[in-house]
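ESCALATION

Customer reports they have been waiting on this structure for their group meeting. Please prioritize. Original submission:
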Amino acid sequence: TAPKKKVSSNQSRGQGSLERVMVRNSIAPNPTSSVASLLFELQEKTKLDIYVTDNLGRTVRTVALNKFYQQGVWNEQINAQGLPDGVYNVVIQSGRNRIIKKLVVQR
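Update from on-call: job pushed to the front of the queue and completed.
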């Protein structure tokens, strides 16, 4: 018989699929005073929501909503102008899977 492919416990519950598709992601400059770039690379076509939340979980910026991204490297701009100084969460979501990155706004 063929050898079985090892599946981690996270993958077996349907978690972690976004981490497998998105091979890298970063935000720069961080901290930012006006605009930051979210750079990410996808291994396959993926529908994403990308948004920024405050420390109470309220959405304060929407970067992309139900947007299809092809395989490759992407650069989305996050407009932090008008946001008070503080720490925010940049949420990258596909279905139930999320990657959360910290963004510091500082002037």
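Sent to customer with the following note: Residues 2-15 have pLDDT under 50 and may be disordered.
Escalation resolved.
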